[in-house]
Amino acid sequence: MTNYIVASSKDWHRKAFARRQSGAADVWEYVSSPEELEWASEDYQPRYIFFLHWNWLVPKDIWSRYECVCFHMTDVPFGRGGSPLQNLIERGYSETQLTALRMSEEMDAGPVYVKRPLSLEGRAEEIYLRAGDISWELIDWIIRVKPEPVPQTGKVTLFKRRKPFQSVLPTNGELNRVYDHIRMLDAPTYPRAFVEHGDYILEFSQAEFGEEEVKAHVTIRKKQHDGKR
């Protein structure tokens, strides 16, 4: 038997993992926090650790000892860095590459195993689920083929991780800009598009784009005393 670890900070990956684990001949372990990652890597001594979506820096004593594969939503070296989905949509991209690469000391700079096309249509949650499905296909391929990753080549473009205040709804421009802004933030745990109105915060989701209008669901919340959402 071979041991594998799947690491994700997002709950939407758990169902796919449960389906894979059922009836598997090998040993699969799911981790969702740095603490779980640390003990699981020690206990299982995995052949691969697959990072589907991770919010924390992985310690060197893990990525240097085990073959750590992460999945990044750009055609690296273009788009290394944080918030790739939102940065791509803001730049007008409708399609990207989902890249499986080996983790290294520099973020998203490791050698590449494989890339696959990924559509950026729909809500953020739909795109993340789509990326998850493709990631599992790539995991199967990596386990079967055991490829040697190839160093990245080309011009490096860095993305910056977005801050919550950047989720405020645009105040000018074309309607498609409003639509894209709402949908690119419409996923669980992400700060949704919003506007402030007096004592209230208006959050937008489920956007639909028509010829002359954008329709969306609105959730109205009271501001906290400290002014935060």
UniProtKB/TrEMBL annotation:
Pfam families in the record: Formyl_trans_C_2 (PF21553)
Read off the CDD domains from this record: FMT_core_like_1
Q: What are the alphabetically sorted keywords of the record? A: Transferase
Listed InterPro entries: Formyl_trans-like_C, Formyl_transf_N_sf, Formyl_transferase-like_C_sf
> Listed GO molecular functions?
transferase activity
Q: Which residues form the Methionyl-tRNA formyltransferase-like C-terminal domain?
A: 166-220
| Gene3D superfamilies per record | 3.10.25.20, Formyl transferase, N-terminal domain
Q: Does the keyword Iron-sulfur apply?
A: no
Q: What is this protein called in UniProt? A: Methionyl-tRNA formyltransferase
